[in-house]
Specification:
The protein is mainly α. It has helices at 2-18, 21-27, 33-56, 60-92.
C-alpha cells in the first residue's frame, strides 16, 4: 500500500512540473497548437493514473477529485481538437 501512495505522490509532483512556468511556455507556443493538445493529454492521463492509484489504497474522495479534473481536461481537449479540425478544414476549402 505504501508503494502505491508513493507512486501517487510522484505523479502529483509530475503535475507540479507540468504546470511550471517554463513547461507552460513551451507547450503554449501559438506557432505549434499541437503542443498544447499534447500537454492536455499528459495532464489528463496523469490525473487518471493518480485516480487509479488512490482508489486502490481506498482514498476514493481524493481519487474522485482527480477523475473530475481529468474529465474537465478531456472535455477541453476534445473542444480544442474540434476547433483545430474546423480551422484546417476551412483552410482546405
Amino acid at each position: 500500500m505504501a508503494i502505491l501512495e508513493e507512486a501517487a505522490l510522484c505523479l502529483e509532483q509530475c503535475l507540479t512540473v507540468i504546470n511550471s512556468e517554463y513547461i507552460q511556455a513551451y507547450f503554449n507556443n501559438p506557432a505549434q497548437p499541437s503542443l498544447k493538445l499534447k500537454m492536455l493529454k499528459y495532464k489528463c492521463k496523469t490525473h487518471m493514473q493518480i485516480c487509479a492509484l488512490l482508489s486502490q489504497v481506498h482514498k476514493h474522495k481524493e481519487a474522485s477529485a482527480h477523475s473530475n479534473i481529468a474529465i474537465q481536461i478531456s472535455h477541453y481537449l476534445i473542444h480544442d481538437q474540434e476547433n483545430l479540425c474546423a480551422y484546417f478544414t476551412s483552410e482546405l476549402t
